[in-house]
Specification:
Order of helices and strands: HEEEEEHHEHEHEHHHEHEH
Number of helices: 10
CATH architecture of the largest domain: 3-Layer(aba) Sandwich
Shape: globular
Strand content: 15-25%
CATH topology of the largest domain: Rossmann fold
Number of strands: 10
Radius of gyration: 21 Å
CATH superfamily of the largest domain: Alpha/Beta hydrolase fold, catalytic domain
Number of domains: 2
CATH class of the largest domain: Alpha Beta
Largest sheet: 8 strands, mixed
Length: 274
């Protein structure tokens, strides 16, 4: 009788473990792309309407993937100071991030912003290697029009990993990262530390590795109250920066409001006027 009770107790705890640990982990594994990416697709014939002048390009990567790229222009297109390649965050599409380009165009830069596969009018699958291929081709497109020493690569949130990748593999003027992450598995681990995220997560994007390979000047902005990519996680990137690089901690800053803080504007003015 005592042995039977112990078996029942063992089975109960095993079933509870499966219920509380294994099942949520399995569910996450199969829906992770839906949790990480929140695209808003647009029809191919959709017409953008922006308050400032712009050009639009279709960049074919392969038979199943074409990247939509919008180039935002400064008021005076005859005297463009430089180009910014802007890799945006994980939601919506170019329309959502277009207002954030004003700080660059007001300083005389044009801004090249691609939509990721499945975002906006871009087509293709959500595969990490395809994102890298996209980043390479966008760089080549911009570099065909302007010298590498006049190209600033800017990444916001999800886009920081791909911006860092470009700066680590191509010559650029400088790299700027807004609310970056150590790696995608590290983000997931900050929410679910009980799981082996390094094995479970499809997208790796080791930003820390790309930073360590980047020779050009790098500036990082991160808010201390960021509730999406936690500040304590982003701080781990400091050890991969060069002595001359900047890590700008914005006290009280959150994930999507750093541009409201004077320190962000002051540092960006310095970067863009250089």
């Amino acid at each position: 009788m005592e042995v039977r009770k112990k078996r029942k107790s063992w089975r109960f705890w095993l079933n509870l473990f499966i219920l509380l640990y294994c099942i949520p982990g399995i569910v996450f594994y199969y829906i992770q792309d839906k949790l990480l990416f929140h695209p808003k697709a647009l029809p191919a014939d959709y017409a953008f309407h922006f308050s400032r002048p712009f050009d639009e390009f279709q960049l074919p990567l392969n038979a199943g993937c074409t990247i939509d790229v919008v180039r935002f222009l400064p008021a005076d297109t005859s005297r463009i100071k430089g180009s910014v390649i802007y890799f945006h965050g994980n939601r919506n599409n170019i329309e959502h991030y277009a207002p954030l380009t004003k700080i660059f165009t007001d300083h005389g830069y044009d801004v090249w912003m691609p939509d990721y596969p499945g975002f906006g009018k871009s087509t293709g699958e959500l595969k990490e290697q395809l994102f890298y291929q996209m980043a390479n081709q966008v760089y080549k497109l911009v570099n065909s029009r302007i010298s590498s020493d006049r190209i600033t690569v800017y990444g916001k949130s999800l886009g920081t990993g791909f911006a860092a990748y470009v700066a680590s593999s191509e010559p650029v003027k400088q790299l700027v990262l807004e609310t970056p992450y150590y790696s995608i598995p590290d983000i997931v681990n900050s929410y679910a530390p009980i799981y082996p995220t390094g094995y479970m997560v499809n997208f790796k994007v080791p930003t820390y590795q790309y930073l360590s390979d980047t020779k050009e000047p790098t500036t990082i902005f991160h808010g201390t109250s960021d509730g999406v990519i936690f500040y304590r996680r982003a701080k781990k990137l400091k050890k991969f920066l060069k002595p001359s690089d900047q890590f700008c901690s914005i006290e009280g800053g959150k994930h999507n409001n750093l541009f409201d803080y004077p320190v962000y504007k002051q540092v960006m003015d310095s970067i863009l006027n250089h």
